[in-house]
Amino acid sequence: MENNESSYSEAEEQKSSLPFLEEEEKEDKAGQLSNVEECWEESKLEEELTGGGKMGNKDTSEQVGDTHSSSMKSLEHNLGDNNIQAMKHKDRICLLRLQRNLKELNDIARKKELEVQKHRDKRSTCQLRIKMLAKQLDYVGTEIEKEEEADNVAALSCLQAVRRRLCTELEQEKDLELKLALTIKDDTLEMWHIETEQGKYETLHEQLKKDEEELEMKYQEQAEVRIWEAKIAALQAEKNQQSRAKKEKEAQKEYEEKHKKVLEDAKKNHEKAVCFLRKSMARIREKNAKEEVKTQEHMERRIQAVLSLKTSLTSNREKLQALQAWSKAKALETEKQEMKMREDILAEGGNAAKEIFLHKQLLKHEKEKHCYVWYSKDFDVGQVYKKKIVLINTSYSVNCCRLVGISEWLKDFISVHFDPPGKMSPGMSCEVVVTFKPMINETLEGEVLFMAQTGSFAVPLKCTAKRCILALDKELLDFGSHVVGETISQTISLTNSGALGTRFRVRMSAGDSHRGRATAESAPGRMVTQHLSDSVPEKEVSNSPVNSVAEMKEQIGPDYSEEVTYCAVQVEPQRTETSLSRSSTGHLGQDILNSRSDLDTGTAHDLVAFSPEETPVEIMLGKVTEGEIEPFSSVKLQILFVPAVPGDVRAEFVIVFDNSDCKPLCFSAIGVSMDMPVWVLNPNIDFKICMYDRLYQDCIVIQSRAKAMLHLKFEVCKELSKHMELLPKTGYIQAQASFSVQLKFLPRHSLPQDAGSYFNEETRILEVPVTILIVNKAKKVNITVHAIVTTSDLEISPAQINFGYCTIYEAVQANVVLTNKSILPQEFGFVGLPEFVEIQPNDGFGILLPLESLTLDIIFKANKAKDYSFELTCKSEINRQFKLSCKAVGVHPPLELSHSLVQFAATALNGVSTETLYVMNPHVSVNHFTHTVPRIGNGEAAPVGPTSFEFCVPEDCPVTITPSVGTVLPGKKSFIQVSFRPTLSDQLIREEAVRRLCRAAAAGAEIQKKKKDEKRGGKKLSVFITRQQSSRQPVRDGGSKYPSSPCSSEQPKSEELRSDSKAYVAAQAFLMRTFSGRFEKYIIPCFVASGQINEKKGSENLSYSPYNTLYLELHCPAVAPSVVVTSNNGNNTVDFGDVAVGHRMMKRLTIQNISPKKLELGFSVLNPNGPFLLVRAVGMLEPGENKPLIISFCPNKNKWSFEMLDIWTAKTNLTLSITGRGVTPSIVCSVEEVLDMGYVIAKEKVTSTFKIQNTCMLTLRYSIQLDSLSPARDKDRQRLPSFITSSLQRTELVGTQNYNGLSVFSIFPTEGEIVAGKSQDFVVTFSPDHESLYYSDCLKVILFGKEVARVIHLKGAARDHPVFVEGGVPLDVPVESLAVTPPLSSQGAPKEELQEPVKFILLDLEYTNAESSPVPAVTELRMGAIQTSRVASKKHTEFAFHDLPLLHQKGFAVEPAQGTIESGQVKRIRVSWVPPADFCDDDPPLVTALLALKGDVKESYQILFMTKVVSAYAPTE
Hints:
Low-confidence stretches: 1-86, 512-613, 1019-1049, 1383-1393
Structural class: alpha+beta
Radius of gyration: 61 Å
């Protein structure tokens, strides 16, 4: 029976919920079928989505059918068009949506089939129960007949009760069967409707397939036509080919004829060309001979220049050291003066910093007076010259100036135009125009005088006329030592650096030739030195830079020496070089002449004394002796030295000019004539740059002028005997012949120690004397061997590389520095490289310049797991070898990547690019004979089994790897997805935002300052220290009285900016639009460990080796986007947040085209079964145009949802991340199902509070509804009263209402929101206006205006008097009459004798008869006194039961039988019954007793006691 009751209750619940289920199903079908119409009417989609929940209980099938038929017609019309073309993107989307709708219809059909099957199963169960109940009813009828025959009243009454119950249940089951049949019928009709809709779609699909077949046939026909046209075109091409071949043959014949003619002409021309070629070759040979002569002369000049340069290095170093020492001393002196001045100022109590600063400014101002602000050079008489001079106020206050005048002697030639500008702020300037009209050809100097508030100042002026500035490149020509009979030539350059030309003449001065006779007592070196000092003019010697500096320093004092030195160096650089070369040449000549002092004294007797008339001219002028020198040009003068008589020769020359302003220039020439029986053609042998341990050779040719054979001996100094050798050691030279000696030079590494003073370790220059000794004559010829010795070493740093652990899937790079220690370039190359080593750049080959260092990349890639130890060999061009030791450990990891390099496509900012790869586990066996076994070096092999991995992505890396952790089984692979999402750095955006705020604040401060200045009018302006550098930049004041700009004093911190602030959004938009692109590389490590990851502990339980780490290299190029999101602060994430399941939320997103071109947009397809929907798309965007996108979210489950929407353009893509969470609303109420307000005095109020807590993560919008106030209340009242139907069938919860029309129950608040995790208190007020025990109502808590979350039954009772009694079985109906009738007993009775009519209460007691100790049947009554302040009632109420002896006789016991009830107190009265000894089952007693209540009003209750005895072994119901 309990099962029957439960099944019936379920049936009732299903019946009660059927209207709501039908409405929801119809709404779902209407929404799903309307999706077909979305393909063609997207503009109405939003209205349908918002209006889908308002369809109510309407019959939507007809409406859906009409809409569907119209959409089907339009679709069939579009698909059935004869002019079918290729399906467009929009048509494909429609087809996809059509397929989605078909799938949804199939799902609905399957769901409906399940429901029909469920209802059929229930109906079968119900039919079985009906059959079982019918059988039980027949059995009970038979038993009743038997008991009637046996006259067993007790059993008969029990059986009759059972039959009534069975009849009732049978009727209920039949009703349920009828309802189930109706439900099945309705569901079947709906299934037929769905099948009809599916049939329509299938027809549409068949039509679509048919159209596609027709389209394919058309394509085939078009292909056949194209093939036929191609064949015709091929035939035509073949004909054209034949005609072209014919034309080519004709053209070939014509070409051959022309070719013959050309050959004939070529022969004739060749003969002519040969003739001309011979003449040209002759001219070329002649020209080459001349060039060779010029080259030899050039080489001689270069040799002389190198010699003079060598001698000048020492003197230049000494001069530079002297200048540096002088500068340091001057700086120390200046510091001492400044310290002394500071101490004096501080002693006087002044501001030292200010005074020193002013002193420096004054010195600077005084120095500036010596500079010519206005300088006119090389003017022409009669011309007019104009120039602007800018005067700047460099003081710290407002200043003004006026023109005083100009120098008296300049007034006839110079005029000044100056408009006084008035007051000038600090840093402001004005212009002065100076006009110069020369009338005489003379240099003019003067100044323009001005007067300012701070004092007078002057602008210097200088105007120079055109003049000749003549100079010689050298003042001494040293021919060196030469043998009598040779001819040597040298040149000297005359340069005119002025703007005026002149004519010159060169002649020898008086005493043009001086000859020194070398004797044993004389010192030629001293004589030559005297000649040198005499030949140098005193004026030019004093004009050297150092002398000029010293002289000017004495004249103008120590304060200006530094600046004057700078001017002197700048004005006379050429003269400085001339003096240096002159002095160096003098030293060189002295050394050469001193070297002659070791000649034999007998040589002096060989000298012949000539008379002045017979002395030959040995130093003479060349061809050019006079000529014209143009402005800014130079002329070369040739001087010849023809030694005739042994000894020293000196000649003086003077150059005179036609221009009287040009002073004559003098120069000297010296040389030494030697009369040796032998001489060497090249006395200076230069090996250039040599390397250690390399052999260098040269040939020394010795000439003899003697008339007899000479015995020669060749010697090298002892210090160089190990490094240099002459072969042969001795020799004989024939008369007037030549002899060759082989010079071998093999420098060893001990050369710097052995050579001693002949070798300079700093410059690495070697100068070795070699002597050719004439035996028996004690004469010798000195030869000097020059060389610069350098090493050939190549240094490799470091000398040893340890690559460490390297997997076979990666390459490890180490850097070494290869340094060329030589001052010669060297070629190098790494040879014999193993296959696992690579060297870059240029594969390890190249050329190193002198002392150059080159960084080389040594790339090691292990090919198997083992320990590596090897050497790399670097060879130089001279076959020297340099070793580089290398070590490494090869590692074979258990896992491998399908590819270790991922190159993403160019991705726009905030876009997403995705690439895929696999993590593979190829380790399936430990047999190293058949498989490559993973191991570290020569260690143990890795175990076979599950192997785990983990990718560790840096925090600031814009790359996501999914999954980042996993386990791969042997022989399997794991799919990995790598996503690249470039974004702008948050710090970069914040810095740009701060800069923009600073600029805005500075601009605002500038505007305010201008306004203040305008208000002040003629008042004095503020003084600023620093000048305004740009009109757009604010003036920054370090010492002004006004506060600095906000950017400097109140600069906002970038960390304090919020991401949703206007400055942040503006900076982000600016950087997005000005982004120029970037390229980044990332290397992501992947750690590998043997074993499987525990879901609870993660990877903590696994031990891994860092040497098994795999590396994934990512190339990530980012470009500027074409389309950006302008709404939502530029964020590309559309976050719907928490949305209630079954509800729909829409969001609008604005996108903008920031590219200069028109863009056509495409969109990826969202999951058709997902919760997201692109309601409104955008097809085209003009440059700079904004358009909105509308996306909706309707979750159907309690979970997170995430999808990516790609917006495609021609170049870049924009990816939108759409996320949202469906949340099932859940609440907890402090009241279960019934809220009993208790008893209250009529026309009084009582309140009760209950609490509802929001237990979900969503803010709930609620509303409270009472069924008594429902709009459907009037319709419900048309039904039969609930008391007529069975109590089990009563669903009416609205009971007695007030007569005054006001609701008996009220609640506050009635609507609002409950935040997640919070609670809301609700106050229910019960205010009845008349007495009734059946006040009730139904309170519904509705969420989001749709879902009923909680139903609470409100109950209450009202009494006119404070006392109430309740309990027992109700004997009246819960619905009272609409008529208001006062009680009869109270009509006409006096107020003090109010008597209520007698009320009846039925108590049903059921006693269970068992063998054990008897347990009485128990029930209870509740009596209470309502506490009220409105009625002046007694303090207590008395009650008493009458007829107690009779009750005791019948086995009843009442406890307590009498007593009092205080106000506000409720007392329970226990009534028990045990069958007495004379109890008869056939005649159960019905006992009555009177309960009297005495309080404000006397009340009487007639208590009816009805008993029943039940056997403990009887079958339970």
